[in-house]
Specification:
Layout (H helix, E strand, L loop, with lengths): L11 H8 L6 H7 L23 H8 L7 E6 L1 H12 L4 E7 L7 H10 L2 H7 L3 H12 L1 H11 L5 H5 L6 H13 L4 H6 L4 E4 L9 H5 L8 E4 L9 H13 L4 E4 L17 H5 L1
Parallel strand pairs: 1-2, 2-3, 4-5
Helix pairs in contact: 1-2, 5-6, 6-7
């Protein structure tokens, strides 16, 4: 299931030492480190039903049975949209969400305009244009060749990851792009959540612009940011930028910066910063 995933490995003893400063809690750490990383319906090695409409409900029906109680949902791009939708509808109790590069477009028009900025083929695919269909059909017919060429065209990615995007069909790709990324609005789903949500966003993300994500705060989704002043992994400036954008959009956003706290201190119940995290 993780064949084409990129992930880092830490032993249960190492995780327990970081989280609880007690390596003997390795069994508890191992349970907490369980990961399920499915391909979306119609993508990668997941089923590709020919008659499927690939709407949000179709994707959720495939994902919901895979979610155990107490899970932390992590989604990227279209997967982030579906993670929010799933969290808003599932009966399974969740620990929280981590959303990476969330495409929080305020309208279908804004979504299409943003997709156009990444290249003409993306927008044409979302609109179901004939030349986009022809390009996708060519990729599908020559998939053995394109899978071999993909790692050379995206040399900054692991070979298996670079080759994975060609493992879909025109129907699964175009309809998911149109019904999930372009047509679905995440603001309502976010507002309905009662679990912690962490949004991680690049400042130069052209596919999912940061201002659109920050504007979610103004739509009734309050944000509370906690960032250690000595965090040398994720610079505090990123949270300050988010705060400025959210405030400018008229949102309810606050930032707490525990003095002297590092990147790990914010998840350590024994650190002096912990009371501010849970406050």
């Amino acid at each position: 299931m993780l064949e084409n995933a990129v992930y880092s490995v830490i032993s249960p003893e190492g995780c327990a030492s970081i989280m609880w400063r007690d390596a003997t809690k390795r069994t508890l750490a191992a349970e907490a480190m369980h990961i399920t990383a499915p391909d979306l319906l119609g993508f990668g090695r997941s089923p590709k039903p020919r008659r499927c409409a690939y709407q949000v409900a179709d994707h959720l029906a495939a994902l919901d049975p895979l979610v155990p109680p107490g899970a932390l949902l992590v989604g990227h791009s279209a997967g982030a949209i579906l993670a929010v939708a799933l969290a808003a509808r599932t009966d399974v109790p969740l620990r929280g969400l981590v959303l990476l590069g969330l495409p929080a477009y305020p309208s279908a028009g804004a979504a299409l305009a943003s997709l156009a900025g990444t290249g003409p083929l993306a927008r044409a695919t979302a609109e179901g244009r004939l030349h986009a269909h022809a390009a996708c059909a060519t990729v599908c017919m020559t998939r053995p060749l394109t899978r071999r060429l993909a790692p050379h065209l995206a040399a900054d990615l692991p070979a298996a990851v670079a080759a994975d995007p060609v493992a879909h069909t025109w129907r699964s790709y175009s309809r998911t792009l149109r019904t999930v990324v372009v047509a679905h609005r995440v603001a309502g789903d976010l507002a309905a959540l009662r679990v912690p949500v962490l949004i991680v966003h690049g400042t130069r993300d052209r596919t999912a612009p940061l201002p659109a994500a920050a504007a979610l705060i103004a739509s009734g989704c309050p944000a509370r940011l906690v960032h250690g002043t000595l965090d040398d992994v994720v610079p505090p400036a990123m949270s300050r930028t988010y705060l400025a954008l959210a405030t400018k959009a008229g949102g309810d956003c606050e930032l707490a910066e525990p003095a002297g706290a590092s990147h790990v201190d914010l998840i350590d119940p024994l650190s002096p910063a912990w009371p501010q995290v849970v406050a």
